[in-house]
Amino acid sequence: MKKLLFCLLPAAFFNYAQAQKTDALERKYASYISVDDAKRHLNIIASDAFEGRETGKPGAEKAANYIAGEFKKMGLQAPVNGSYFLDVPLEENTLKVTAFNVNNQSFENGKDLLMRGTFGNTNTHATEVIFIGYGTAEEIGTTDLTGKVLLWINEDKPATGATANTSYRMSASRTLIIKAIQSKHPAVILAANAGIAEVLKRFGSSYTGSNLSLKKETPAAASQNAPVINIDLAVADALVKPTGQDFNAIKTASAAGNVPAKSIKSDFTIAYHTETKPAKAVDVLGFLPGSDPKLKDEILVFSAHYDHIGLTTTGTDKVNNGADDDGSGTTGILEIARAFTQAKKDGHPARRSILFLGNVGEEKGLLGSEYYTDHPVFPLSQTITDLNIDMIGRTGYDYQGKTDSSNYVYVIGSAMLSTELHKINEEANNKFTKLDLDYKYDDPNDPNRFYYRSDHYNFAKHGVPIIFYFDGEHQDYHRQGDEVSKINFPMLVKRAQLVFYTGWDLANRDKRPVVDAKSDKAASQ
What we know:
Helix content is 33%, strand content 19%. It is of the alpha/beta class and 525 residues long. It folds into 2 domains: 41-88 and 281-508, Zn peptidases (Aminopeptidase, 3-Layer(aba) Sandwich), CATH 3.40.630; 92-277, Glucose Oxidase, domain 1 (3-Layer(bba) Sandwich). The termini are far apart.
């Protein structure tokens, strides 16, 4: 036994030494992710010269050219037939709501209601509105909804022992309810929610301008689904006024039981149409080939969207600079690319290939990542993971004023498809960065729906394991105040280093993360 132990000691010492050597290498190249270099990038990306980087506008084109230029300086390959740009064919659609009248009272899209989407010419007039409560089958019963204008409570119905989701963002259960209602072919669904008033106050003008959509390769037939229009309670009150009650009164009655759908004698008119023209946009791709003949065909993706919401018409500061959203993430992937390319120059290349992906159109509905995953430059079957960075430079509401406000990051989706991926990220953090990994939003049923709201989701839909790194919403989210001066650069760097360490492991381990979840829990929702 003593002889065996004596023989094992040198092997154990060798393995320990090798592990220490590997750790030192990782730390060395993580140090290339630096505050000074991050400041250099972000001061350009989030400058007024880039005009808020709105997709389809000159500012976004400037940002794309800057990212491609940095990829070229680092020596990354241009993988799209010799180009760093993947054309994303878009259409710019401007919805014009020319009339929205309730009992001789006029309301305005972007101020009192929120209607978005692409719809054909429509002019609807009705002398009754059908109030359907929470839209459950018990409430609707056998009521004929064909061609009718519906008033719907856009909240989850209260249930004993459960906290109802009252956000205007539709939960999975409400999404199913809306699909069931639309199958009955109503003309319009008016979705009432108290929270929409604040949304309209903050974002109404940006939400009701033009919107972008992917150009369909085969023109689709006109949608037969009724539009869902978010309305504030002032509009809802106007609709139910002929009953002698306000909206909250009839909502309270519906919450208490299955009140049957009922007709309200209310005069309602809506008219709208969509104007369409082509728009130009690109994803930006930089490629680092792997060194291992057996693994180089497998691809690790680092992604971040470089677009933001552009210019505004209100206030003295017209530019929504988007320093955190998502200039910080774009800066992060440029810094991570710098670390990996330097390692390769020094003779320590990654075994797997790496794609650095700057997505366009995230703010318009994850359009760039949707196009990439539908038209991948590298097969998704060979894509082992997407590490997506969207906002890593600020402190979110939940951590403001706390002692650990600069040492956390929200981690979303890490175990959604691969529990092994979750462990890899945890181990990297425990060994190197020691951030507080917060899983508060790591749930497909989170009322904020963050899992569905950034580019990683389009990879997850195709079965590619993902991690989404996020700092949480704050006071300047989608406002002019999201500027470089408010970025905590040491925190940005530390979060980017965690992504790098996780990526280093993924790019160099013998086997790709096992997909052991039954399915993407969100894909069917």
